Amino acid sequence: MLGAFLVIACVGGGSPAPAATGDLPDLGPGVTVGHLPSGGTVIVRPAQGAPVAAIELWYRAPSTGFGAKPVPATARLAAQIVAASRPIVGDSLGKAVSAAGGRLAISVYADSVAISAVVPAAAARQIVKVLTTAFFAPVMTEDGYRDAVRDVVQESQISAYDPETVARDAVFGELFTGGPQHFPSLGDPKGIAAISLADARSYATRAFRSQNATLVVSGAVDPDIASAAVAGRSGDDPSAGPEAPAAAEVAATVEPVTKAFGEEAGSYGWVGPGIASPREATAMDFIADYLFRSDEGIVSREVDDKYPEALMLGQFITLHDPGVMFVVYSGSNTAALRALVDNGFATAQKAMDPAAFASALGAFKYHLLSDLQTPTQIADNFGWYSVEGAAEYAPGANGDAGTYFKTADSLTPDFVAAVAQKYFGKTPVVVTLQPVVKESVKTQ
Amino acid sequence: MRPIVALVALCSLLGAAPVSGPSTAPESTLRYPTASVTDLGVTKVLSENDAGAAVSGLQIFVAAGLDRETPSTGGISALVAESILRTPIDGVPLRDAIAASGGSLSYTVDGRSVHYYLEGRTEHLGALVSLFARAFSAPDFSVATIGAARAALATRQKEFEKNALSVGIQMFRQTYYATSAGGPALGNVSTLAGLGTKDAVAFYGATYRRAGVMASVVGVVTPELGDALKALSAGLSDGPVVAVQERAHAIPAEAPRIVAHREIPAPWVVVGYAAPAPGSRDFGAMLVLEALLSDAFQRSSTTTLGFVEKPIGAVYLYDSTPASLVVYVNGTQVDPSLALREVVVVAHSLSIKPLGAPALRQFKTAAEGQFISDSVNLSDRAYLLGTFASQGLGDDAINAAMAALDRTTAADVQRVAKNYLQRYIVALVLPRQSPSP
Predict the structure, then answer these.
(1) How does pLDDT run across B333-384, given as a tens digit for each residue?
(2) What does the alpha-carbon distance between residue A86 and residue B77 come to, in Å, rounded to a whole number?
(3) B24 vs A: CB within 8 A
(4) HEC profile for B273-306?
(5) What is the ipTM of this complex?
(6) Residue B1: inside a domain, yes or no?
(7) Of B194, B219, B234, at which residue does a domain stop?
(8) How many helices (H) and strands (E) does chain B have?
(9) Which of B7, B14, B162 sits opposite A105 (nearest CB)?
(10) Is residue B49 assigned to a domain?
(11) Which residue segment(s) compose the domain that B103 sits in?
């Protein structure tokens, strides 16, 4: 059965999106920022290099739905149904991207959703049209629903074996007492199957409207590619704004969490500064890079040398409010890994020698640029910071002369140490994953 | 920083039947930036210019790969490379010195070469190369450095042995290649234990010569980088690099099986085939077959499946000469016996009947998409530019590969399937105490 029949108008004329003005962020020369025809924002960042385009739609939307009762996986399932459903004319989004030789992914975070297509550049214009057609006026069919439930259930089953996902869900579940941050974004197979098509449709109608969207296109594309985006539903009010961010309900106190899992693993989590405190947030990014950068962070290097089989990941997740420092590790000796993590955070709370700090800061800035070398990385970055409400703070906005790099340049050893003491001095959530639950202070 | 999330949702490029109806194939030719070549005397530098790139990447290829090892020196290529990364520069190991200077350095040993990847901010890359050149031209092969390098390799080799797919591919390569090109990239514990300073000095002296080095850059080649590469080349000794014999065993018709057991939950199957070199007229068709075999058996999914979710995949290995293609079956996702039979049947069908026009278009589009998606970052592009150029695709090598793919016909695909996919070696990696499939 087809969903509601909706009128879609294609934007003609091929004129480029307007330059950044007024309420639109300034992301630097070569980056076009404008309004979508029915509201919402479009960011286009052409780049030389591989003939590939990253096309991403980002939404501010809670993973657990808009209802009073949070339902994990609502956003994930709704987006998957949209991508899987075949409209009256043409193929589903999934098939269209596949037929173009591209790859399609859907990522759901606590309070945002990203639909990402990576396609050969020559197909970019067509996929912009197909993607915006699919999401701005979603057609959600019974067949699409059936396929989507199958896919998301399988994804959920696989993620249950991923220590990072399990640990992150546990950390967020303890750091936040309510709101979408408290719940896993994917949920379990039973819960996924219990979400009805009607509920998913209701969610999609509100969440995926054009006015709530940020369309980001990066790669070997024309600056006027935004003209391929379609308008939204005929009844949409272009002046309607995006959704407000979900209010975070931060726990006053936290307790250790122990969960059963297939292998031994551990995790830490602290709340950190929100995006409104960019200098502190940048300091947290610097600390995460200095300690946990893959192959190069001081903790990562020590783990590589002593426990090469171990998994060790650490990062600061910049969010509207608050951010979260998250670390996860697994291996044959989790006690030793935890000791290395503890030692790393203790080191971060001491002011670094100025020469060592200057070197680490230079390395940090190089890492930022290295992590922005592909169209997907650029689009992810602009999309993420846009929905978090601080597009101009995105690393890469205005190249290495923008807000982020200027803020990084303002960091000092004393300030970084003070930020570390401020946030890591508090009790973290400590998550223990183990094959058999022997003893737990609190079991989720 | 935005969160790093693994790509977990995935979709197949191909269903059971080719898609009919309007094609979404690109309407214009896809091209990478046209590569240019700079001759620095003996050493050649290929480059793709991404105007304004904030970060640039450099691959330095040395003709010191596995094909120059012997049975008794297995692992010497990696041992020398590892020692170079550990060579002190002003008291700091090279790799750390480069990291502290705002760059990164890694190396990979493959069949035909060892290649070092250096990356940094474009304006710093020349200085990073100058740092690298100091260790590259005067490596530390002291007992202490060799010992530390050997220990690091042994640890990584141990980890490698836990990866069933890597083990399966290695088993195939060792059976297929008639030379040491099929040996384990990091050596093995027994051969490494016997290698020391004298072996490293001898291998380095015979292979790290100006004539055996080439480089490829993606990003921006600054004058400082050009000067640094010239100096790097000048720091190496002159003299010829001895040619190596590149040979593989003929694969027998009876499809030999080789078996290994590991601590894994489910079997993995690796089916290995001979394959054409990149410079061959069959290259484009084999890229199409790689994409086809990689995706023909996927379960249906709207979003693109990630590695762990793929029951069957294919990898075209053109790092060695002759090249090879492996198709792998993940036994945690699918019945390996059934999947193996399907792979064989599909390969046979492709050899007796040409693809129809819609199917060919679809598979070429899929191959093109896969090729481009796997060749986006600086490291991959610089590697492909160098390795393709050295195997006969010319200086503008990546675009030449794209062109080879573009001109592939149904007859090409059928011919290549017939010539290469009818004989194969099966490597089985089984859980301990599990019956063979």
Answers:
(1) 888 998 899 999 999 999 999 999 999 999 999 999 999 999 999 999 999 9
(2) 54
(3) yes
(4) EEECCCCCCCHHHHHHHHHHHHHCCCCCCECCCC
(5) 0.90
(6) no
(7) B234
(8) 14, 13
(9) B7
(10) yes
(11) 36-234
